[in-house]
Amino acid sequence: MAQAAADKKMVKFIVTRQDSADAKPYTEEFEIPYRPNMNVISAFMEIQRNPVNSNGQKTTPVCWESNCLEEVCGACSMVINGKPRQACTALVDKLEQPIRIAPMSTFPVVRDLVIDRGRMFAALKKVKAWIPIDGTYDLGPGPRMAESKRQWAYELSKCMTCGVCLEACPNVNEKTDFIGPAAISQVRLFNSHPTGEMNKDERLEALMDDGGIEGCGNSQNCVRSCPKGIPLTTSIAAMNKDTTKHLFKQWLGM
């Protein structure tokens, strides 16, 4: 019996923790019994049920965010073995051990792996990433999009504001006010919409403002890291073209 317990496979986690927004970060190690098809979220749930670290000391459960558990909500973004990604699709069987978990450094830490993505939502507000129709009145069906446009617009609409592209981008940090690739791509999405294009010029001018599209250094880390495969660099190139055309129109008084 003792031998069977000794032979039981364990999974080791090294988690970067932070007790509060103002506290210093530290690492804590955990070992939990292995189960087939385990992902990082289920491992954290196991730690939550029995919050004891590798030294056998009772500790506080690790704090994290999650919701859908199927890579749709974007809430469980964190850095796993040095790569920003979603914890719900990070399968333990495919991760090198010990598994190192840390919060995304681009955003302020609230506690442990919980971050404040306010910077990202502020960028979306800045570029007015919405259709300004409140739905109070029945306006009937809107104009139809061409199928060729709808197909690539649908790809852009998959953005779940997970923040992974901002974490991967070297131009998004505490020293810059660059709005990041996600907001730029959303400008392309809403400017292509038959109703959204009413505010096209406003969005382009927001991209031309400080912290806008000129902050992109074309590292292309964003498109490589996006969990939804959104063509972010294509959107950045398209918006670069549109802002340039808009600037010339302003100069010519058109």
From TrEMBL:
The highest taxon in the source lineage is Bacteria
Q: Please give the PROSITE patterns that the UniProt record associates with this protein.
A: 4FE4S_FER_1, 4FE4S_FER_2
Top EC category: oxidoreductase
UniProtKB keywords: 2Fe-2S, 3Fe-4S, 4Fe-4S, Iron, Iron-sulfur, Metal-binding, Oxidoreductase, Tricarboxylic acid cycle
Family annotation (InterPro entries): 2Fe-2S_ferredoxin-like_sf (IPR036010), 4Fe4S_Fe-S-bd (IPR017896), 4Fe4S_Fe_S_CS (IPR017900), Beta-grasp_dom_sf (IPR012675), Helical_ferredxn (IPR009051), SDH/FRD_Iron-Sulfur (IPR050573), Succ_DH/fum_Rdtase_Fe-S (IPR004489), Succ_DH/fum_Rdtase_N (IPR025192)
Is 4Fe-4S a UniProt keyword of this protein?
Answer: yes
- One MF term in the entry's GO annotations: 3 iron, 4 sulfur cluster binding
Q: What is its EC number?
A: 1.3.5.1
Which residue intervals define the domain 4Fe-4S ferredoxin-type in the entry?
150-178
Name the needed cofactors.
[4Fe-4S] cluster; [2Fe-2S] cluster; [3Fe-4S] cluster
Q: Which GO terms describe its biological process?
A: respiratory electron transport chain; tricarboxylic acid cycle
Asked if the Swiss-Prot or TrEMBL record annotates the protein with the keyword Iron-sulfur, the reply is yes
One Pfam family for this entry, by name? Answer: Fer4_8
What the record says about family reads:
Belongs to the succinate dehydrogenase/fumarate reductase iron-sulfur protein family.
**PANTHER family assigned to the protein according to its UniProt record, in alphabetical order:** SUCCINATE DEHYDROGENASE [UBIQUINONE] IRON-SULFUR SUBUNIT, MITOCHONDRIAL, SUCCINATE DEHYDROGENASE IRON-SULFUR PROTEIN
Protein name as annotated: succinate dehydrogenase
Q: Which organism is it from?
A: Paenibacillus aurantius
Please name the taxonomic classification of the source.
Bacteria, Bacillati, Bacillota, Bacilli, Bacillales
